[in-house]
Write a structure and sequence with these properties.
The structure is a single chain. Helices cover 33% and strands 31% of the residues. It is of the alpha/beta class. The strands form two sheets. It has a six-stranded mixed beta sheet with strand order 2-3-1-4-11-5. The longest helix has 18 residues. The chain is elongated and about 65 Å long. The two termini are 35 Å apart. The structure holds 1-O-pyrophosphono-5-O-phosphono-alpha-D-ribofuranose (PRP). The site of 1-O-pyrophosphono-5-O-phosphono-alpha-D-ribofuranose has 12 residues, from strand 9 and helix 6.
Amino acid sequence: MKKMLQIALPKGRLGEKVYKMFEAAGFSCPEVLDDTRKLIFENEEAGVRYFWVKPSDVAIYVERGAADLGVAGKDILLEYEPEVFELLDLNVGKCRMAVAGPKGFRDNTENTLRVATKFTNIANTYYRSLGRDIDIIHLNGSIELAPILGLSDVIVDIVETGTTLLENDLEPFETIVPISARLIANRSSYQFKNEEINAVLKGLKAQTEALK
Ligand code: PRP
C-alpha cells in the first residue's frame, strides 16, 4: 500500500513556487494555493499532505519526523545543522551569504571585528577559517542597521538583489557561500517511505533540470 507523505513547505512566495514544482512533478493539491488561513492540505489520491510552516522552522519539523519531506534554505541548514538528509538542490530561492559593511570600510586586524548577524554559526565558522578574531552580535532582523548605527563594523547576511545594501549605503565585500532551496528528508522516513520519497525526488529532479 502506498504510504502518505507529509511535506512541510516554507510559507511565502518561495513556498508557492516550490509547491508548483511538486504539482508539476505529479503531486498536486490545488487548495494549497487558496487564499485561506488553513495550514494543512491533503490529496489522498496523490499520497501527499502539505502544510505551511515558517521557513526557518521547516528543518525542525523534518528532523523530528513531523514531516517526511520539506524545503529549506541552505542558510538554515548551514546555521542549525539539523540531522536530515539533503536530497536535492531545487535551484530556486537563489541568493548568497555575504559579508557587507559601509562603503570603503577597511578591516583593521589589530582590533576585534564586530560582526552583526542572524547567522552566528555561519559567521563564526567563516571567521574561524580565516583565523580572524571577532565579536558576534546576534540580531533577529534589519541587520543592515547595525553598522549604520555603529553597533557593528560589518554584517553577515543574505544578499539577494543587493537593493537593501545599496539603499542603506552599504556594500558587499565577500561571498561566504551561495544559497538556494533544498529538498530535505527525515532520516527514518527516507528508509521507511523510500519508494514514495524517491518518486517525489525523481519528479522534482526533472523540474530542476528544466530550471537550469
Ligand atoms: C533578507 C536579508 C536582507 C534582504 C536582502 O531579509 O536579511 O535584509 O533580504 O535582499 P536584497 O539583497 O534583495 O535586498 P528578509 O527580507 O528575509 O527579512 P529579515 O530582515 O527578517 O531578515
